[in-house]
Design a protein that fits this description.
about 80 residues, alpha+beta, four-stranded antiparallel beta sheet, 1 helix, globular
């Protein structure tokens, strides 16, 4: 049974970077446009007591904050890379 871990992903369509709490063999869809993603090279992070429900709420808040930032600052998210 594989454990859930944190991995970094990048959307192949909109170039959105995000972190997901998934099994190592799972590649999630982009939370912004629901397209295919690619796992980025990074050190995997393990769960240190965070539940998947709490992570989903936290990730949803992060996506909403990112969207608000893009809207407030007129940033074209297709051409803006943050955190890299």
């Amino acid at each position: 049974m594989a454990k859930f871990m944190f991995f970094d992903f990048r959307c192949l369509r909109c170039d959105h970077k995000f972190e997901a709490f998934v099994k190592p063999d799972v590649t999630p869809s982009c939370p912004m446009c629901f397209s295919n993603t690619k796992r980025l090279m990074s050190a995997p992070r393990v769960d240190l007591g965070i539940t998947s429900d709490k992570w989903v709420r936290t990730n949803a808040q992060k996506v909403a904050q990112d969207k608000k930032f893009y809207d407030d600052h007129g940033v074209d998210k297709k051409h803006h890379s943050y955190g890299s």
